[in-house]
Amino acid sequence: MREVTIIGAGRTGRGMLGELFDASKKFHLNFADSDLAIIEKLRNQGYYEVEMKNLLTGEKSIRRVSDFETFHIFDDRDSYIKRLADSEIIATALFPEDFDQAIKDIIEAIKLKYRRNDNHPSAVILGANYVGLKDYFYPRIKNQLLSDEQKYFEELISVVGSNANRKITFPEHDNGDLLLVGDDKPVLMVNDSFKFPENYDYPKFMVKVPNIELKMIEKIWSENLEHIALGFLGNYKGYKTVNEAISDPYIRKVVYYAWKEAREAMYKNYDIEIPDNNFKREVYQKFASPYFADKLERIGRDTKRKLKKNDRLLGPAYLCLENDILPFFILRATAYGFFYKEDKTPDSIEITQYVHRNGIEAAVEKYCELDLEDKTDSFVHESIVKNYREIEQKDTFPL
Questions:
Q1: DSSP 221
Q2: For residues 255 and 229, is the Cβ–Cβ distance under 8 A?
Q3: In terms of Cα–Cα distance, which of 204, 144, 167, 139 is closest to 56?
Q4: Looking at the DSSP assignment, which residues form a beta bridge with residue 273?
Q5: Chunked mean pLDDT (size 10), the chain, 399 residues
Q6: What local confidence, expressed as pLDDT, does residue 398 receive?
Q7: Phi-psi region for residue 114, left (φ > 0), alpha (ψ -120 to 50) or beta?
């Protein structure tokens, strides 16, 4: 059986990648993670289930995934690296803070393959909500290989971006049995840059596209922008789930116009078409659906990362400014991030305390990573602070 190893056994790793590879019946499935608790839970239970819903109708099906092995990336180091080297496909489902460790692991596996004289082509399929993913991984892998290893890497190993775009949410009743809930998309978009032979048997769920980076820009800087804006504004208004937040007329308008600003900038800069109103109507119907009660605490977590320059809010905001578009609503949504409060979230506690001790001006400079000597950064800083002050005055902005 062909081996696939998924680095990152969280909701996307299991709930989308794992389910798709398992359903293809072409691969033996392996999960690797730094979280010992999830690895032990998967080992002890021996299976997990994915409940896939149509978010408009509520129609659902449940798949049980049970044929897999698990590896803790430190405690099972030797067997983990050997399994990576044995894998025809390595797929990642990671947060940015885990990128560098995954790069180390992949480098070790490449070196082992090289020492084995293994001339079978393989692929690393990168997955994360991050613009510029291949540009981050590829040079860091290549530059840490010796010259002969670099040649081997360039000839036989593909590094391919992907767009894992299945919505993964929480079960209504979590009884601790590793149940995952998501929508029913059966597709993984991948960049068409594999080094497999022409007759290679790709799994049917893979859809190859010529430029996955544009797809990722479109996803992160518009769809993920909407998600985090819903998270920040919904939390401020006291809502708990996406469908509650999107039903608030004020929130829906801010989110829509922030999305509109980002889409206009993407069209101007990359010629990415702006979806029509029918498309947006269906998207918001899904957000408002009782079958999509995604928790705002999940969306708002990792707040510090999501307020940074290249992420889902300030990334498109800067693209707007580069293309002479004022990102008024994007920066308004960003300001709400400094009000985000969630007792279980360390980032939220840290930011709230920092604002209290040092003021909003210092907090925006720090967490948005702004250089106030830079003209554009200074404008962004001033705009977020001004919006924060207006929101602080009981949010009287007329919409």
A1: I
A2: yes
A3: 167
A4: none
A5: 96 95 96 97 96 87 95 98 98 96 98 97 96 96 98 98 84 74 91 96 96 95 96 96 94 97 98 93 88 86 94 98 98 97 89 97 98 98 97 68
A6: 53
A7: alpha
pLDDT on residue 95:
92
Per-residue confidence (pLDDT) for residue 397, from 0 to 100: 53
Separation in Å, CA 387 to CA 220, 332, 381, 399? 23, 6, 10, 14
CA–CA dist 364, 352 (Å, integer): 12
Exposure class string for 302-335: b at 16+ Cβ within 10 A, else e: bbbbbbeeebbbbbbbbbbbeeebebbbbbbbbb
Query: What's 273's DSSP letter?
Result: P
CA angle 120, 126, 128 (to 5 degrees): 165
Cβ atoms of 280 and 287 closer than 8 Å: no
DSSP assignment letter at 208: E
Distance from C-alpha of 20 to C-alpha of 188, rounded to nearest angstrom: 8
Residue 336: Cβ within 10 Å count? 26
DSSP 77-121: HHHHHHHHHH-SEEEE---GGGHHHHHHHHHHHHHHHHHTT----
pTM above 0.70, yes or no: yes
Beta-ladder partners of 189: 163, 207
User: Which pLDDT score, from 0 to 100, does residue 242 have?
Assistant: 93
Half-sphere exposure of 117 (CA within 13 A, CB side): 0
Running DSSP on this structure, what letter comes out for residue 272?
Answer: P
Count of beta carbons in the 10 Å neighbourhood of residue 60: 14
Per residue in 317-354, pLDDT (tens digit) is 999 999 999 999 999 999 999 999 988 789 999 999 99
Q: How many CB atoms lie within 10 A of CB 362?
A: 12
- Which of 399, 380, 396 lies closest to 335, judged by CA? 380
The stretches of the chain forming alpha helices (DSSP H) are 11-12, 19-24, 36-45, 77-86, 99-115, 133-142, 147-156, 212-218, 224-237, 242-246, 249-270, 277-288, 296-300, 303-306, 314-322, 328-336, 346-358, 360-367, 375-392
Q: Interhelix angle for 99-115 vs 133-142, to 10°?
A: 40
The dihedral formed by the CA atoms of 366, 368, 371 and 376, expressed in degrees to the nearest 10: -150
